[in-house]
Amino acid sequence: MRRKSMTEPSRQTVGHDAPVFRFAPSPNGRLHLGHALSALLNADMAEKMGGRLLLRIEDIDLTRCTPQLEQAVFDDLDWLGISFEQPVRRQSEHFPLYRQALDRLKAKGLVYPAFLTRGEVKARVFAYEREGGTWPRDPDGAPLYPTEERAMSEADRAERLATVERYAWRLDIDRAQSMVERLLTWQETGDGPRGEIEADPAAWGDVVLWRSDAPASYHLAVTVDDAAQGVTHVVRGLDLYHATSVHRLLQVLLGLPAPIYHHHRLILGPDGRKLSKSLGDTALSALRAEGKTPSDIRAMVGI
Ligand code: GLU
Question: Which of 173, 236, 249, 299 has the greatest CB tally within 10 Å of its CB?
Answer without folding.
Answer: 249
